[in-house]
Design goal:
- By secondary structure, the chain is mainly alpha-helical.
- The protein has 7 helices and no strands.
- Helix 1 (3-20) runs antiparallel to helix 2, helix 2 (27-42) packs parallel to helix 7 (121-159) and helix 6 packs antiparallel against helix 7.
Length: 160
C-alpha cells in the first residue's frame, strides 16, 4: 500500500475518531471501515489480526453502549465547542499517557471548556459532573475504543 493510500486510510480513521464526538455520525464504524480497507490491501497476518481484534473490540463496545443510559445532549448543555475540547483533550491524553490518558484528557477538556465559559471552579466542576452523568460515559467508552484501534493501526503501519 502506497503512502497516498495510507494517508487516506489515516484520514478515514481520524474522521471516525472525530465522528464519535458528533451525534449521528457512525464514528466507530468509520474506524472499522478504515482498518478493513487497510487490511484488504495489506493482506498480512498482522493486518488480518488487527482487523479481527478491532472488530471484536468495537462489537463489545456496541453491546456496552446499549447497556448504558441513552445520551441526553441538549438537557445538560453539551455544545460543539465542548465536544471539540473534550475530543482534543482525549487525543492529547491518549498520546501523552498511552491508552489510559484518554480518560483524564476527556474530562479535562470538558472542564477547561466549562471553566472558560462559566468562570469559576465550582460551577465548572458541577457542569462536568452533569455532562459525565448524561453523556460522558458512552462517548468516553466509544472514543477510547476507537483511539485504541487507531493506535494499534499506527503501530502496525510503523512496524510493518
Amino acid at each position: 500500500m502506497g503512502l497516498p493510500q495510507l494517508l487516506l486510510v489515516g484520514l478515514v480513521l481520524l474522521l471516525g475518531v472525530v465522528g464519535v464526538l458528533v451525534p449521528g455520525v457512525p464514528g466507530s464504524w468509520l474506524v472499522w471501515a478504515g482498518v478493513l480497507w487497510w487490511a484488504l490491501h495489506e493482506r498480512s497476518a498482522l493486518a488480518w489480526s488487527l482487523l479481527v481484534a478491532a472488530t471484536a473490540l468495537l462489537l463489545v463496545v456496541q453491546v456496552v453502549e446499549w447497556q448504558l443510559p441513552p445520551r441526553r445532549l441538549r438537557g445538560v448543555g453539551v455544545t460543539r465547542r465542548m465536544a471539540a475540547y473534550a475530543g482534543t483533550g482525549a487525543l492529547l491524553g491518549f498520546v501523552l499517557i498511552p491508552v489510559v490518558g484518554a480518560v483524564p484528557g476527556f474530562v479535562g477538556g470538558v472542564y477547561l471548556c466549562e471553566r472558560l465559559r462559566l468562570g469559576t471552579h465550582g460551577e465548572a466542576w458541577a457542569s462536568v459532573r452533569a455532562v459525565m452523568r448524561a453523556v460522558g460515559t458512552s462517548v468516553l467508552v466509544e472514543l477510547l475504543a476507537c483511539l485504541m484501534v487507531v493506535g494499534a493501526w499506527l503501530g502496525a503501519v510503523v512496524s510493518g
